[in-house]
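Long-time lurker, finally posting.

We've been working with Dihydrolipoyl dehydrogenase (Piscibacillus halophilus) and I want a structural starting point before designing mutants. I don't trust myself to interpret raw outputs, so I'm hoping someone here can both generate the structure tokens and explain anything notable. Sequence follows.
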Amino acid sequence: MVVGEMIEERDLVIIGGGPGGYTAAIRAAQLGLNVTLIEKDQLGGICLNQGCIPSKVWAYAARKQSEIPHMKQLGFDMESPKLNLDQLLTYKSNVTEQLRKGVESLCQGNQVEVIQGKATFTSDNKMGVENGHQFDIYQFKKAIIATGCTATLPKSFSHNYERVVLSHDIFRLKELPNHLIVYGSDDISLEVAIDYQSFGSQVTLILPDALTLDPSIEKELMRVFKKKKIKVIKGVNGLSIEETDDQVQLEFTDDQGKERLIEGTHLYTSGMRKPNVEELGLARFGVDQIEDGYIVVNNHAQTSNPNIYAIGDVTAEGPALAVKAIKQGKVAAEAIAGGNPEADLTFLPTIIHTTPPIASVGLTETVAKEHGLEYQIGEFSLKANGFAMLSGQKEGLIKVVSDAKTEIILGIHMIGSGAIELSSSFVQLLEMAAKEEDVHFPNYAHPSMNEGLLEAVEALTGHSIHQIDSKKKPHTSDSLTVKIR
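Top reply, 14 upvotes:
Generated this for you. Predicted structure of Dihydrolipoyl dehydrogenase:
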């Protein structure tokens, strides 16, 4: 190893070029800081190259597959198409490469210095970067850690298996599983189950933990799984795994106490998340961490060491989502540049790219009930929406939870076409502490999925135009009776 003769000085050094890291780098450069971004692999990180983007390519392909029957109804003469997995893999590679080049161009255009190598803190204002035989020292005023997490097998899995794949493997398989067992209760597990069923695999979904979705959304999702002939098993105790040359076998007891034996050609699990902090040497420099190594930060994304910030999956607060990393990245850069921003993750949306997709923001009915709140709910089925009918996207519903006394909206949850696009409106309504009247007042394009939100809010008082709520009593102009839960 050759040690560089000079110490490079920088305003800001960022470790990790994923969505949080490169966003922070560009925002800091926009604010006039001298920025160096260090990435030991590829720009875009796990999200762009192995996670978010590849998984959504699969989800998008599955959604297009699901539209084929409706295309025939519209009059298009189509044979039953068969997935060419090699072509899908090529498409995914082309998309990720194009997006990665876009990130590279953005960094270059904003004069962000990008260095490939492995970074280690040598003091609370210096770090070493190793790249092959070269080792350079950088002195910084501030640093941002954006190193993310790595997926590892759950503790109940005794060792590595040939036919057990994690999230970075499932989107690189060169053959479609004949029978895919999906083990997990997280968003990607739900997506993988529906994607591979759409592609032609038999799928068994094992949910080791309860879903955190609103009960109405979960009920509709289970109905979709049943319709798609995806077998769902809840609860796992005493799991054992055996693997042969051509199959994997799971034995366990479900939540009903029933012994189960499931055989498949492949097993997918999202596994456990492990923060990438071991190589950084943080313990010596006063950076507080919780169990498993996650870094504790404040609402400016600053750690207990005032020179060091951390963002994204590596932080202890909030779920492992790219939207969190991007928000924290901007906040950290702006705080370092002298601003006073805040990363408030209260209304972080849950987005699941299943078919149909799911979007959830704010309190679920379950949480409202657990907190003893006096609340009311309104639901609207998309099969009563005109645009859903004509587009063949009738599955799903929108549900609104509001405070029964103040009429402030507490949560909005949707499963159905357009959910992801509407999620920004859901977040905005909750951020502004909107009341029911704030949703009633605007005009809504017709026909559109947007009308479903209005009708769900109108259903709070039994005034949804396109559905009849038999549980509600007739209302008079003098008084309104609302359903209190």
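Before you design anything, note these points.
Residues 48 and 99 are 8 Å apart (CA to CA).
The chain has a mean pLDDT of 92.
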